[in-house]
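User: Study the chain.
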Amino acid sequence: MTFVFKTGFALFAAASVFALASAAKAQDSVARLPADAVLVTPQGEILDYIPESGDVQMMRDRRGRTVLVDAWGNVVATVMGSGRQREPVRRREVNRDVYTNPDYGYSDPAFTDQGFSQPGDVTGSIQDFRNAAPPNVERQELPTSLPLEDENDMAALPPEENTQPRQTLPPATQITKKSSAEITALQVFLDREGFSPGVIDGKTGSNVTKAIEAWQQATGETLDPNNTDDILERLRFTGGLPITTYTITAADAAGPYVASIPEDYAHKAALPHLSFTSTTEMLGEKFHMDETYLRELNPGVDFTIPGTIIKVINPGEMKKGKVTRIVADKYRKQVFAYDEAGTLIAAYPATIGSSDTPSPSGTVQVDRIAFDPGYTYNPKINFKQGENDQILTLQPGPNGPVGTVWIALSKPTYGIHGTPEPSKIGKTQSHGCVRLTNWDATELAKMVSVGTTVEFLD
């Protein structure tokens, strides 16, 4: 039987939104720009002209940077030094349509103490980065969950002397030698069911095993991962074959993208957005795939050319439901989501703290949910990152320290959030928070609400 699949697409892109400090207005003339100035638009592009003095005025944003603002209050460009003499440039009038963004946000005093620029306690669909007014996330002790160097899959386990009872789930059948395509089918089935295997890469591993065990716990059935015919038959009822085709659009190719994401937070803070670095990275996240696997499925393909037809994973519809209780199991490195009847409806591989910077124990609640959050680094109350000793504001984007979602917990500074490195979920340590892939964090965030219980198991 032949199946035809339609795969929807929502482009993740990042836009830089600047909140201007009115007290710091400077009525300088554009003619006073330094000779080596580079003008960078909110979309991350470099202007090849200088706007006319009558069209814009120079102001200061919260970070003390000089910005050019048009008559409608829209940021035209941020002034940055290039370190070299600018070549002769032309001037022209500002096009209002290019820079107008009716969704630019405001600062709500009720949320400024936590770094948010708009209420974050309401779930909803992911905003388009181009039209979002991103809230900031400011953690005060253990602010990020960037992977540490140790990639030992057991690195985040508690000490052996821990005697707290652990969850017992029906053990998964050992997977025998299967092809990459067969493992992919298994991973896609689990992903569609809401029991995430993490990135889909056609490989076996602990995340796949944990997903099988959670699925068995939820359904009461036993899944034979070696029975490919059974897996394919199950897929037939949940969206069809595991791999489908997708046509790269002009928007996919256009981005915006950044050339690379630096490690140093000061360098990150200088970027207008922390979006994807390439079309392949964006497509990998869109289709829950490992980027390398995406390339393997499409050898020799140029992903930057609109109209190119490629093979991608068909992850199916996002899991829906109302989650009233979350269990973060540190030992299993897995998050479990339960509905009000106590039924397990979803599970996700996770990175949960480390021996040096453990996650909290006991029970807390969800305080706030924010999509596309920015990030504030404060070295006086955060860990020391590199040589940075000043407060830094990082713009939002999937490559930000907390990814595309922040679920704040009632224990200050802790949360459940996304990650810029999905392939490392469950295999590295974090700085105390619960880290999921961006797509898993998004799915979970849309099912929880303020007050949802979060229980940490050691």
User: Anything to note?
Assistant: The radius of gyration is 23 Å. Residues 1-29, 82-135, 137-163 have pLDDT under 50 and may be disordered. The first strand starts at residue 37 and ends at 40.
